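FYI - complex with adenosine monophosphate, inputs then prediction.
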Amino acid sequence: MRIVLLGAPGSGKGTQAQRLIDKYRVPQVSTGDLLRAAVAAGSELGLRAKATMDAGKLVDDATMLGIIRERLAAPDAARGFILDGFPRTIVQADGLGALLTDIGQPLEAVVLMDVDTEQLFRRLTGRRTCRSCGRVFNVYTAPPSVPPPCAGQCTTPELFQRPDDSEATIGKRLEVYGAQTRPLIEYYRTRGLLRTVAAEGDIDVVTARLEAALRA
Ligand code: AMP
C-alpha cells in the first residue's frame, strides 16, 4: 500500500493512519512527527524548524523533500507507506511524484479526509497528547478516561497540548492549509488518484469508510 492521507490539520489523518498500519503492515510516515522528534532531539533541523512550526507556517519544501527522501529509503518503507501530512504544497507533490517514479513505487491513492472548518477548530483546541506514550486524546470527543488512559500502558498519563494547537496558531494553520495545501485536491483529482472520505463522526465509522475507500 502506497497512499497519502490528505486533509486539514485536525481532520484525523494521524489517528486513522495509526489504525491502518497494523492492518496493512506499512509504516505511517508523519512529517509533523518527524519534525517534532527533531525538535525534541535538539538537532540542527529541529532548531531550524521550531519557530516555523510554532508560528503555524510550513517548513520549506527543499527541507521537507530531503526528509521524505531519507525516510522512504528506510527498509520498513520498502513494502509501502501511509504518508500523513506530506505533501502539503504543489512543489512537494511534484517532488514526491518524481521521487516515487525514480524508485518505481508510484502512489496508489490519495485519500481526502473531509471535515468542516468548525469541527476542525474544535478538534484542534481539544487535542491533548500523552507525554509518555504519545497517544492522542481529545477533551471533547475522546477524553482520557474513555478508553482507560493510554490503553492501560501509562497509569498516570501526563497530557500536554501541542504548542501549535493554541487558538492563535490554529487559525494560521487552517489559513495555510487553504492557501497552500487545498490545491492538492484538484492536483490529485486530475491525476485520477483522489478518493474522498467523510471524516466526521465516530472514529470507528470513519475507519470503516476509509477502508472501504481503499478497497474501491
Ligand atoms: P502536523 O503534525 O502534520 O500538523 O505538522 C505540524 C507542523 O509541522 C506544521 O504546521 C508545519 O509547520 C510542519 N510540517 C509538517 N509537515 C510539513 C510539510 N509537509 N511541509 C511543511 N511543513 C510541514
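The chain is about 50% helix and 15% strand. Strands lie at 2-6, 28-30, 81-84, 109-114, 127-130, 136-138, 159-160, 194-198.
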